[in-house]
Amino acid sequence: MINKKVVTLNEFIIEEQKGFPYATGELSSLLRDIVFAAKLVNREVNKAGLVDILGTTGSSNVHGEEVKKLDVFAHEQFVNSLRTSGECCGVASEESPDFLSFDNERAKNAKYVVCIDPLDGSSNIDVNVSIGTIFSILERKTISGPCVLEDFLQAGFRQVAAGYVVYGAATLLVYTTGDGVNGFTLDPSIGEFCLSHPDIKIPEKGKIYSINESYRARFADSVNQFVDYCKVEDKASNRPYSCRYIGSMVADFHRNLLKGGIFMYPAMSTHPNGKLRLLYECNPMAFIIEQAGGLATSGEQRIMEISPQELHQRTPIFIGSKEMVYKVVEYINQEKLVGSVNGVSH
Ligand code: AHG
Ligand code: MN
Ligand code: MN
Question: Which strand ranges, in their side-by-side order, compose the sheet holding 295-297?
């Protein structure tokens, strides 16, 4: 039997860099630093049941949510790795109210900033259900010196790379630098991420819808109409679609990316901008989905064209297979039209 050559993530990054003759290797190096921290987080996630890492720190994060120990641990690992990287001048993390500016000599003049959700799906930590990390890399706007807020407040189409790690039955890293999407599975026996999902494309017609329907009473009618549409029996369009909702965006997104589907976290009467954060949850996932042939919208506009005003800004999101995103937008536009005809303001 001929063994297929295994391509490790490091080899892949080097090959990808060769495609850009003027690349200096800084982005490659930054990606490797993120991956290194992800391995440390993975190790901790795997033994979460064995050591006293479960439970809460007793404090809340900037959004008033309970912070679990693993969130803090993950935040620290990524920040430490990025601080010493020399390629990153600052980080915006879900777990920190302000961005962190690195002041050592090399970091101060580094080209990139990183926005990160160090631990996504934290309510699933202590029940051994998949959780993740989401990251977005931007080129800073300022040239040198300590980074400033405007370095982070950039629209998603300016991202130079984005990715996520799923700590699941296996640990996977999926990322893009704007030239397609590739997935790597961690082989724990050698401690390397190996190319397992080259050039991922999301099916145009999905069969899965993911939404926390318990908030139905808080959603716009158009969103509920789309959900009802998903449930209708119709052979021609393969309906009813399946409902799948894990409660870890990374895991829900990953499944839908591979199988075809739509993930939704809409606006609610109680949360007009939904729950998920633009800079380190929605933008990176939007970059990945578009690179995989799908779409991401807030219902009003393309996620990656939103011009951020705040570090922890939230946005409604509908993300996934093209046809499904088109369909929900159709319902949203219809509702707006009916609203304007009836003189109802939105
Ligand atoms: P985080 O753990 O980073 O706060 O993110 C949790 C998010 C996201 O992963 C998930 O899709 C969503 O919260 C679930 O929220 P609901 O429980 O409101 O459905
Ligand atoms: Mn999250
Ligand atoms: Mn988080």
Answer: 242-243, 208-210, 261-265, 317-320, 295-297
83 within 8 A of 30, measured Cβ to Cβ: no
Q: Which of 123, 262, 279 to mutate to test the pocket of ligand 1 (most atoms within 8 A of CB)?
A: 123
For residues 68 and 24, the model is more confident at 24
pLDDT at residue 253 tops 90: yes
- Nearest ligand 1 atom to the CA of 61 is 4
Domain with 222, as residue range(s), is 208-341
Over the stretch 202-243, which tens digit does the pLDDT of each residue have?
999 999 999 999 999 999 999 999 999 999 999 999 999 999
* Residue 45, pLDDT above cutoff 80: yes
Mutate to test the pocket of ligand 1, among 212, 252, 278, 279 (most ligand atoms within 8 A of CB): 212
Other CB atoms within 10 Å distance of the CB of residue 133: 27
Q: Tell me the residue length of the chain.
A: 346
Burial class of residue 313, CB neighbours in 10 A (0-12, 13-18, 19+): middle
Residues 97 and 117 in one domain: yes
**280 alpha carbon, closest ligand:** 2
Q: Is residue 285 a part of any domain in this protein?
A: yes
pLDDT single digits (tens) 177-210: 999 999 999 999 999 999 999 999 999 999 999 9
Residue 27 lies in a domain: yes
CATH number for the domain harbouring residue 212 = 3.40.190.80
Q: How far does residue 4's CA lie from ligand 3's centre (Å)? A: 37
Q: Looking at ligand 1, which residue's alpha carbon is closest to its atom 18?
A: 212
**Ligand closest in space to the Cα of 124:** 1
Rounded to two decimals, what is the model's pTM? 0.94
